[in-house]
Amino acid sequence: MIEIGREPRMTSAFRRLSEVMGGMAAIVLLVWLIRGLVGIQPYSLYLLLAGFGFILLGRVFDTKTNAGAGRAASSFLWNLTAVSIIAILLIWFLGWIAGIQSDTLPPVISSKVPDLVVAAVVTGLGAYAAGKLSRGARYATASQPAFVVHEGKGPSMGEAKLSVKHDTVGLPIKRSGLTFGCVLLGDVSASFETPMGMVSASLGSPVTTMGIPFQGSRIGDAEAVKITGKTPKQLATETEVDPTVRFRRHEWGRRGHYEGVDLPFIHVHEDGVEEVVEVGPIKVREGPGGGHVKLGPFEFDSEGKPDYYGRWIAKGAGDSYARRDGREVSAKWNGSSLSLDGNSMTLTVGSDSFSYSPTEVKTSSPLHTLRVTQDKVTLDTRKFTLNISGDKVILRKEDKTTSTDSKALAGDLRTLLTETAKSQVRDVMEGIPLDLSEMLTSTEEVLSKHG
Fold it and tell me: How many domains in the chain?
C-alpha cells in the first residue's frame, strides 16, 4: 500500500539515532560534573571528548537527506555550525563550573575556542551558500513508484468526497526529494455536501493533487502497460505536474509572526491567527473559526462536529479544480463553480446562479436578480424592480415609481417570490436553465389583482 506523505523508515531511524546520541551526551556530561564525587577525576578529558563526540554524532544523524543533495549539504553544514556554537558555549559553561569546583578544563579543550569560532563562521557561510544554490532545483516532478487507485476509491475530506471514476494509475509528486501529492492519470469525481443537497463535479485527467491522502497499490510494468499502455518509467518521464499548483511544505509564513514553546509532550504555538496547545494526543485550537479539539485521529469543532480545516487541492485539466483553503471549499468544472463556507454557499451553472446563507437566498440570471430575506424581498428585472418590506410594496418602472401599503399585496408577493426562489434553487442544483416567464407572469397577475 502506498500512502502519500508517509515518512521514510530510514529518515525515522536516523532521527531516533540523533535523539539517542543527544541523550548519551547529556549523561556523559552529567557524569563529568560529578567526577570528583565518584573518583574519576583523571578521566576528565576523556569524558569531555566523549560528550562532545556524542553531540557531533547526534547533529550529523539529524542531517536531512531526503531533500536532494544540495539541501543535504546545507543541512549537514548547518549542523556542524550548531555543533561549533554548542561546543563554545559548553566550554565557557563547563569552565565556569570547573572554577567553582577548584579545577580547570583540560588545555586541549579550552584552547580550541578560536578554532571553533572560525569553524562556526566557515560552516555557517557554506550552509547558507549551499541552501541558496539548491533552491533553484526545487521544482515539483512526477516520479516513481507508480500505484493504482481502484474505481470508486478515494478519500473523504469533510464536506467533500473525491474518488476516481475508473481504475487509475497515480504517480507521486516530489520536490527536492519530498513527496507533496500525486498526479492521477484518470478522471476524478468530486461530490460536496451542501446546505441545499449534494453537488457533483468532474475533474478531467490528468489531476494534480496536494494534501489529499489518495491510497493505492504499487504496480509493476505489466499492470501499468495494461492500464495506460506505458511503463511507470515512461509515465514518470512524460507526465507533467500542473505548474499552477503551488507545493508548500509549511504555511506558517503566510500568517505573519510565529511564537511557540516546544517541550516534551507539550507544545504551545501562537501565530497571530490561532492559538494552539498540545498535550500528548490532545490538541486544542482557538481562532476565528471558533474552538477545535482534537483527540487522537478525531477532531471536533465548537459545536461537536468533525473539523477538517486545512489546505488541499485537486487540479484537473483546463481550469477545473476542487480545493479547500481554511474554512472555504470551492470547485470549478465544465462551466460550473461552487463556493462553500460552513452553512453558506454559492453555486453557478452556466449563466444561472444562486447563493444561500441562513439569512438570505439570492438567485440570478442575465435577466434578473431575486433576493429573499426574512424581512425583505427584492426582484430586479429589465422590465421593473420590486421591493417588499413589511407591508410596503415599491414598484419601479422606467416611467414611474409607485408605493403601496397593503398587507395582502405584500403577503401574496412575498409568498410567490419565496416559492419562486426555492424553485430556481432546485433548477440550478439540477442544471436546468432558469425560465423566468412563469415568475414574471405570476408577479404581474398578483400586482393586477391588487391594483
Answer: 3
- If asked whether residues 28 and 95 sit together in one domain, one would say yes
Residue 436 lies in domain: 350-449
Q: How far apart are CA 322 and CA 331, in angstroms?
A: 4
Residues 361, 245: Cα–Cα separation, whole Å: 33
- Closest Cα to residue 111, out of 24, 45, 41? 45
- Do residues 323 and 312 lie in contact, with contact meaning Cβ atoms separated by under 8 Å? yes
Residue 365 covered by a domain: yes
- Tell me the C-alpha distance between 196 and 57, whole Å: 59
d(CA 214, CA 197): 25
pTM greater than 0.70: no
Among 198, 222, 238, the domain boundary falls at 238
Do 192 and 340 contact (CB within 8 A), yes or no? yes
C-alpha cell at 6: 508517509
pLDDT tens figures, 283-329: 766 654 455 666 655 555 554 444 444 678 899 988 899 998 878 89
Give the number of residues written for the chain.
451
**Domain end residue (candidates: 120, 135, 150):** 135
- Report the run of H or E that residue 282 belongs to, with start and end: strand 282-287
